[in-house]
């Protein structure tokens, strides 16, 4: 069991604030946790995994299985943006109009929301779901955190299957309609696939066939994390 940890950011540039008593965030030249035990404080590097895939590819469902099995903290970029969208924050209306049009929210805003969650987490193992969505996102995240992800999970799913899943989930989300879904898929293909290719060339990408039952797909995901955790010990 992981002990309670507090995040430490070495900062060089102020990035602004979010409302609701949120902390200030800065670009980070290094990011680590201080974990205390009977031997005294020690540095614990965060374990970061990106989970990528188009809308309806099953990212959230598989993240829930990974959290249950391997104890990661799940951070959904989409959920963080939607939560902010309905708040009274300075970014809410901008996020609403951007998501409604199927466009990508500015990198700085999304990274601030992710960093806020990471800073307050007791965990140091993070699944970042649905981010980065573009090369700009990727570069912004890596510059702010000061590190690359340890691995990247890509849920590869046919477009027809993703459209069917999104239309059938009926969660009342503003972006769950056929026109917006088609826009999101075009954006995903144009902007997200270069990120997938980038990490594939670096040997960090694990491509998962995201067609089938939840358990069948997780049978492909489980050995990836088992091998990583075994190698990290």
Number of strand segments: 8
Sheet with the most strands, sense and barrel status: 5 strands, parallel
- Uncertain ranges: 1-30, 34-41
Provide the helix percentage.
40-55%
User: Strand order of the main beta sheet, please?
Assistant: 5-6-4-7-8
Strand content: 15-25%
Separation of the first and last Cα atoms: 14 Å
Structural class: alpha/beta
Mean pLDDT: 79
What is the approximate shape? globular
Q: What series of H and E elements makes up the topology?
A: EEEEHEHHHEHEHHEH
Helix count from the secondary structure assignment: 8
Our Rg estimate from Cα atoms comes to 18 Å
Protein name: UMP-CMP kinase
EC number: 2.7.4.14
Main location: cytoplasm
Cofactor: Mg(2+)
Can you walk me through this structure?
By secondary structure, the protein is of the alpha/beta class. It has helices spanning 59-70, 77-85, 92-100, 107-120, 135-145, 159-169, 178-201, 214-232, and strands at residues 5-14, 26-35, 42-44, 47-53, 73-76, 125-129, 151-156, 205-209. The longest helix is centred in the last third of the chain and has 24 residues, at 178-201. The chain is globular. It catalyses: CMP + ATP = CDP + ADP; UMP + ATP = UDP + ADP; dCMP + ATP = dCDP + ADP.
Which features does this protein show?
single chain, 233 residues, alpha/beta, five-stranded parallel sheet, three-stranded antiparallel sheet, 8 helices, 21% strand, disordered N terminus, nucleobase-containing compound kinase activity, phosphotransferase activity, phosphate group as acceptor
